[in-house]
Amino acid sequence: MKASGFSVRGDDDGVFWLSGEFDLAQQDVFKSLVFSNLDGNKDVVLNCSELTFLDSSGIRAILKFASTVPRGVTIRNPTPNVRTVLSIVGVDHGVGVRIEPEPAE
Predict the structure, then answer these.
(1) CA–CA separation, 40 vs 70, rounded Å?
(2) Which of the pair, 3 or 102, is modelled with greater confidence?
(3) Coil, strand or helix: which one is 68?
(4) How far apart are CA 63 and CA 70, in angstroms?
(5) Which of 46, 51, 44 is nearest to 85 (CA)?
(6) Domain range annotation of the chain
(7) Which CATH superfamily is domain 2-100 in?
């Protein structure tokens, strides 16, 4: 599914690939796709290697989604600017969310 430079696609392994700009206008696209393709038997990964922008509404959508997943959500390979936003907000310390790889100290 694609809208205004933002897209989400899922695969059979429970990985959702996010790309483009995830903001308020895109949160419904995200919710509709990930919730409809959620399989409670698989670990859920949000691959953010192509996500170029993330605002507070995108973070809120991810946290809401993570709260519904029994094993939580892994945010994989966030771009440097997305990783910075996640770190500032403290998502990397949130319940049900892991970020991989962990930042270098």
Answers:
(1) 7
(2) 102
(3) helix
(4) 13
(5) 51
(6) 2-100
(7) STAS domain (3.30.750.24)
